[in-house]
Q: What sequence folds into this?
């Protein structure tokens, strides 16, 4: 979780609207010095490629960034760095360094928990305007360590703040409100900021367990929540000692919070949402039988369709075989069989007439007809066997 207790102690003595000097990552206006680049390792000769461990070490040990940087993934691939702009906005930049074996890939940087406009940001809040992380080759050629790259990005966003359109994370919105209020209960704001940071941490941790994937986008459901008050009248009459006592005693703090009207309004809103969810669940249960019937009907229709498709395929194959031209070899075999049968029948007729005798005219008529069939079939076979001579 993020902790800014030291930052809030410094905030008590800082005028409202002035960037907090005690806040982690707070910067002064830029100087004319050139950007820092990776330092030489092992003398004056730098190794051909910086390792992933070197990048992460430079990031986590950076003097400016390390106080406000926390890991938000199960592995060592994703981190959040919290910073404050010159306008007083508290923002989070999410850094994702993929685990890609020996070949170092460019880190992915996004603004977490907000929708904003800035020349360096695209529509998905990815930081694309910083040229060294445009692609893997640009990252390797830049010779920058990860800590130096994040430092430059954060510095740019601090001194040229993005235009915040919407805060989509409740934890970040709570941090924002507590810092802008500047009320006398700054210690209480610290505790709430820490609790809000826990919410940010949990949200990021649950969605970033997918290894080797880019950092997730922050998303939230917009609810009609009651407006958080700018100040609490219950605290105006309390002394510093009484406020410290409330903060130090967990039971006292919980009892005080439970008496706040805003908490009752939030609980009422939560109960209304719960009741609405129950009604929707009951309405869904009432339609269960209708859904089951529809599912059964669709399943039966699907089975009928599959059966008819199989029958159609069988009939289509038969149609193709019937409509396809016959094989010449099959036709020749049939003609040869028919020619032989016609010859044998004509020969049998001749033998019977020789043995038994009879009308010569009738014999000649039947014999010539049968022998003609024999010659026609022979001629057709010859034409099929020699199509070029036709």
A:
């Amino acid at each position: 979780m993020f902790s800014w207790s030291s930052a809030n102690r410094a905030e008590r003595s800082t005028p409202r609207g002035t960037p907090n000097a005690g806040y982690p990552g707070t910067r002064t206006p830029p100087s004319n010095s050139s950007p820092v680049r990776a330092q030489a390792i092992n003398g004056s000769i730098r190794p051909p490629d910086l390792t992933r461990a070197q990048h992460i070490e430079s990031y986590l040990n950076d003097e400016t960034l390390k106080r406000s940087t926390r890991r938000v993934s199960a592995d060592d691939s994703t981190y959040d760095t919290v910073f404050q702009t010159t306008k007083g906005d508290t923002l989070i930049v999410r850094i994702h360094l993929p685990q890609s074996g020996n070949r170092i890939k460019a880190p992915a940087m996004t603004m977490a928990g907000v929708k904003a406009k800035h020349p360096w940001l695209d529509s998905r809040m990815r930081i694309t305007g910083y040229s060294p992380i445009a692609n893997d080759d640009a990252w390797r050629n830049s010779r920058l360590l990860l800590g130096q790259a994040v430092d430059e990005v954060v510095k740019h966003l601090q001194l040229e703040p993005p235009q915040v359109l919407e805060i989509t994370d409740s934890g970040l919105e709570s941090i924002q409100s507590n810092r802008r209020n500047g009320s006398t209960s700054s210690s209480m704001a610290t505790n709430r900021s820490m609790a809000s940071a826990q919410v940010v941490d949990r949200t990021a941790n649950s969605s970033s367990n997918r290894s080797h994937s880019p950092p997730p986008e922050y998303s939230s459901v917009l609810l009609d929540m009651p407006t958080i008050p700018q100040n609490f009248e219950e605290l105006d009459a309390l002394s510093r000692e009484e406020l410290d006592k409330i903060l130090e005693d967990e039971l006292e703090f919980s009892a005080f919070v439970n008496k706040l009207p805003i908490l009752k309004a939030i609980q009422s809103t939560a109960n209304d949402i719960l009741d609405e969810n129950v009604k929707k669940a009951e309405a869904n249960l009432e339609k269960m039988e209708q859904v089951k019937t529809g599912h059964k009907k669709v399943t039966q229709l699907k089975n009928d369709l599959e059966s008819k498709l199989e029958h159609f395929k069988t009939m289509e194959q038969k149609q193709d075989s019937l409509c396809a031209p016959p094989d010449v070899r099959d036709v020749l075999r049939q003609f040869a069989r028919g020619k032989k049968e016609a010859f044998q029948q004509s020969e049998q007729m001749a033998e019977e007439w020789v043995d038994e005798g009879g009308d010569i005219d009738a014999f000649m008529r039947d014999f010539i007809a049968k022998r003609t069939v024999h010659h026609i079939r022979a001629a057709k076979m010859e034409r099929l066997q020699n199509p070029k001579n036709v």
